[in-house]
Write a structure and sequence with these properties.
Strand content: 15-25%
Oligomer: single chain
Helix content: 40-55%
Shape: globular
Strand order of the largest sheet: 8-7-6-9-12-17-18
Number of strands: 18
Low-confidence stretches: none
């Protein structure tokens, strides 16, 4: 996607042919800073500190982290160390495990002398696969937006609500939830996005709004609790969100607050779609509410906020009284019954095991 007219991806191989470049998402929207990863430790730290974030991008970063590890030491012990370190960085997104399993399986079959070259090649393939997958998600999701457009007067705006950031910054390019939106906008369809601020890290306000703005997509940032009001007043035509893990029964785990949006959508008859690449499906879990691990993050994400002051300085301030206990659950699970459909690279599916297994038998076999 574009930043001030220039094409960027969220992660890439640098011109030196071995180090890895990435956008430092901790600095957005106030500063556009590029980071350089030169070791598996760098990759792990980038994931852990949310320099990179979003399930698909975490997977791609971990794959490149393995490649960086193999460049230094391609032994079995080094491969195991890199795997163990990287998989421990974030507990909820299943793409992380998928990518690391892909890398380890491919590399284990080769002698150490051949591993570095394959590691970089396989990491690049994982990144390219994500781009292609998201383009297909965009194509299938575009049909949903076009169907809504067919019910409106020519040129009338289609209002789409999203939550958190499931844009190109959360993937390698295009995004999941935003891919259909970008395709519709680029085709000249009048779309407008309601962007949840998504506390406590404000990924909607700081990331989704930033990337939509740089691509020229009309949007409005709203406080997290506004969505229900907008739906009640018929100001939302459909909701599209992303996900970090989908259970085999169609339950969807996404950024905290998604469940509440799904409840409001259900109560007001607003279609609620979830966009996801197939590596996000976890066929080993049959009940998302009971079995998907929910990351509990640092209390500082709740107690403090960072922004730009009137004189241009970037400052972090405390907004919670000293001594108040803090709970910071990073994700929640939306039951399948509240999901209208799952937008995947192989079509829009019903949120149920039979549909997922039929569309992705190879993922079921690999669990």
């Amino acid at each position: 996607m574009k930043v001030d007219g220039l094409h960027f991806r969220s992660i890439w191989l640098e011109p030196d042919g071995w180090s890895v470049g990435a956008i430092d998402q901790r600095r957005l929207p106030h500063e556009f800073i590029l980071a350089r990863l030169t070791s598996a430790d760098d990759a792990a730290d980038a994931i852990r500190t949310m320099l990179v974030r979003g399930a698909p991008l975490i997977g791609a970063t971990a794959a490149y982290g393995v490649a960086l590890a193999m460049r230094t030491d391609a032994s079995d012990a080094a491969l195991d160390r890199a795997y163990k370190m990287l998989i421990a960085t974030r507990p909820t997104a299943i793409n992380l495990k998928w990518a690391l399993d892909e890398m380890r399986t491919a590399l284990r079959a080769l002698p150490p002398s051949a591993r570095t070259e394959l590691a970089y090649r396989r990491a690049a393939e994982i990144a390219e696969q994500d781009v292609g997958t998201n383009q297909e998600i965009g194509r299938h999701g575009l049909g949903l937006i076009e169907a809504v457009a067919g019910t409106k007067k020519p040129g009338e705006t289609i209002n789409i609500l999203t939550h958190c950031n499931a844009g190109w910054l959360a993937t390698v390019d295009w995004g999941t939830a935003t891919a259909p939106i970008y395709r519709a906008h680029d085709r000249g369809i009048a779309v407008h996005v309601w962007v949840d601020e998504t506390r406590p890290r404000n990924q909607g306000a700081s990331l989704t709004a930033w990337e939509l703005g740089h691509h020229g997509v009309p949007h409005t940032v709203i406080p997290d609790n506004t969505g229900g009001h907008l739906m009640q007043h018929r100001m939302v035509d459909l909701a599209i969100v992303g996900t970090d893990r989908v259970a085999a029964n169609g339950d969807v785990c996404n950024k905290i607050g998604t469940y509440l949006k799904a409840l409001a959508a259900h109560d007001n008859g607003v279609p609620f779609y979830v966009a996801l690449p197939s590596p996000t499906i976890d066929f080993s879990i049959d009940d998302g509410i009971k079995h998907i691990p929910i990351e509990q993050r640092a209390t500082s994400e709740v107690t403090h906020m960072t922004g730009r002051t009137a004189d241009g300085r970037i400052e972090t301030v405390r907004v919670v009284p000293d001594g108040s206990p803090i709970a910071n659950y990073g994700f929640d699970v939306t039951p399948a019954r509240l999901v209208t459909g799952l937008i995947t690279e192989r079509g829009v599916l019903r949120p149920e095991r039979a549909a997922l297994a039929s569309a992705f038998p190879e993922r079921l076999a690999a669990r």
